[in-house]
Amino acid sequence: MIKKKKKFVLPESEVNVVPLMDILTTMLFFLILMASTANFTIIKGSSTASGSSTTTAEEKPRFDLGILYKSPKRIEVFLGKTKGLEIADEKGFNNFRKKNLYAFQNIGHRKVLTGTPETIFQKTQELIQGLKVYFPAEKKVTLALGDKIVYESIVQLMDKISKAQDPKGEIELFPEIVLQEIEPQGDKS
Fold first, then answer.
1. C-alpha to C-alpha distance for 130 and 134, rounded to whole angstroms
2. Where are any strands of DSSP class E within 17-139?
3. Residue 125: inside a domain
């Protein structure tokens, strides 16, 4: 008589994944906690033999337009260095710059606007509209706000910065607005 070999088969069982889920949930909590407290800063540069860092040659100039709204009756508009930027009409921009902006500490140009909130919003929009003519491809502006500025004023100024009315319709100015808080002068931490 020939004996048949029986194949060994493991009995079906279920894997308990509850402890695994507990561990993963705990790890996720700490990952989120660490990520929220980490300060992610990226510094572009290359190391040289002497150990000093230099910026890369292929890095192109960046368009920097900032609006400082520290008090309800004063707005400062900052335009960073324009050398190397793509300007629609270089000669026209130089005339506009000489007429509307002032050189500021060798880092660019600025214009201080004062008056009532309505008038400085209008002056800001006119200046921004003038800049948009020479930088049509740019969309981003940084709006730095003081702690005494009310919400309604912020929204009104953001509307003036992002779009303008024209007889032909609505013009898009700088729709990508980055909000930033100005640190109060007394707090030096």
1. 7
2. 46-47, 53-54, 65-71, 74-80, 102-104, 108-114
3. yes
Tally of domains in the chain: 1
pTM of full prediction above 0.70? no
What confidence tens digit (pLDDT) does each residue in 137-156 have?
899 999 999 888 888 988 99
Q: Can you tell me the distance from the alpha carbon of 69 to that of 86, in angstroms, rounded to the nearest whole number?
A: 27
* Helix 90-100 × helix 117-134 angle, to 10°: 160
Give the domain extent around 115.
65-181
Residue 143: both structure tokens together: 């709006």
CA dist 62 to 5, 58, 138, Å? 77, 12, 10
| Complete DSSP assignment for 88-124 | S-HHHHHHHHHHH-EEETTTEEEEEEES-HHHHHHHH
